[in-house]
Write a structure and sequence with these properties.
Layout: H1 12-21, H2 28-38, H3 52-59, E1 71-74, E2 80-86, E3 90-99, E4 102-106, E5 110-112, H4 121-124, E6 127-130, H5 133-142, E7 151-154, H6 164-175, E8 187-191, H7 195-204, E9 208-212, H8 218-224, H9 227-230, H10 233-241, E10 251-257, H11 265-274, E11 281-286, H12 300-312, E12 316-319, H13 339-342
Length: 343
């Protein structure tokens, strides 16, 4: 495999291996990691406690690997959507969501998505490639106010578990002592339920988990989300029900509400049955209309009744506030659609 030319995205062990290959002192690896991940430099020339000669040696093989967003849009509610270049002349989008004393970054993991959910504009793009570890971390390091980030959610473009190794390596670096040293509890991964990789994620990570459900009925969910044919929600929930949740990670279910499709109390009742006994949260999400879909958003009063029913059944259930809809930054709306205007 061709070595990465970027330092951003390498673990300390990989940096150490590269330093030794370049005949640099071993301690240089910790200096490099500190400059890249803690001090957040953009060039090797900024690594001033490394000699000029050793910096020149390093530059012959590496760049830091930081790239600024090509475009930034700001919503009336303060949400920011960033357009980043990816490999093969592709583009991805990330979203910064400010709220009180929190700043949450919604991170993309793929260019497009294979899953083709009926309600998601990213899925309508088709799949154009997995993001590298560098491209995932570059979003975290290069968005506006990056040093003020309090939380990260893997809820942007793509299915994170379909790019498992790169997503998990990015999380490893974000939580490592030599990098940001974040608690895993500041990171949430959202998935539609890719079972083999979900099992690994539960075993290998302490991050929070959000499962995209959107219907408690298998036949209907299959029409909305083709993944139901391969990995039925009932099997995903069986795995979660038998998992040891003593690590105090949070489990939540995402439920987008579509008018006259999945929003009656009949569905609320079935959802309560399906999730019975699980210590979980349920997040109700307004559908954001996208081109090519006949689905329509539920009415506010319908969502309130749905929430109140589930609350009465003992669930923590909230209606998620829509953010950034005016700049197509809300749930299901990311697509890199500015590519043509900015290329």
């Amino acid at each position: 495999m061709t070595p990465s030319k970027y330092l951003l995205g390498l673990t300390l062990a990989e940096i150490t291996e590269s330093v030794l290959e370049l005949n640099l002192p071993k301690f240089t690896a910790k200096q490099i990691a500190d400059w890249v991940y803690v001090k957040r430099v953009k060039t090797i020339d900024e690594m001033t406690n490394i000699s000029l000669r050793n910096r020149d040696v390093l530059k012959k093989r590496f760049e830091v690997g930081r790239t600024e967003p090509q475009n930034i849009q700001t919503s009336a509610d303060g949400t920011q959507k960033m357009l980043f270049a990816a490999q093969n002349v592709q583009f991805i989008e990330s979203v910064n969501i400010p709220e009180d004393d929190r700043l949450t970054l919604c991170v993309s993991s793929q260019v497009g998505c294979k899953m083709n959910c009926d309600f998601c504009l990213t899925g309508k793009m088709g799949f154009n490639g997995n993001l590298t570890v560098n491209e995932i971390l570059n979003q975290v390091y290069s968005v506006p106010d990056a040093e003020q980030l309090t939380n990260i959610v893997f809820m942007g473009m793509g299915e994170p578990l379909d790019n498992y190794d790169n997503v998990m390596k990015a999380i490893e670096i974000l939580t490592a002592d030599y990098a940001l040293a974040w608690s895993p509890k500041r990171i949430t991964l959202s998935t539609i339920g890719v079972l083999p990789k979900l099992k690994r994620f539960l075993d290998e990570s302490n991050c929070h988990l959000a499962v995209s459900l959107h219907s408690p009925l298998s036949v209907q969910r299959r029409s909305l989300m083709p993944i139901e044919k391969t990995y039925p929600a009932a099997e995903v929930i069986d795995l979660l029900r038998n998992y040891d949740w003593s690590r105090q990670r949070r489990l939540s279910f995402e439920y987008i509400m579509f008018n006259a499709v999945n929003d009656s109390l009949v569905y609320a009742r079935e959802l309560a049955k399906l999730l019975s006994g699980l210590d979980c949260r349920i997040n109700l999400i307004r559908f954001h209309k996208i081109p090519g879909s006949e689905l329509e958003p539920s009415h506010n009063e319908t969502m309130v009744k749905f929430r109140d029913f589930l609350t009465a059944k003992g669930f923590i259930c909230t209606i998620r506030t829509s953010r950034g809809e005016d700049i197509s930054a809300a749930c299901g709306m990311l697509s890199g659609e500015q590519r043509t205007r900015n290329s």
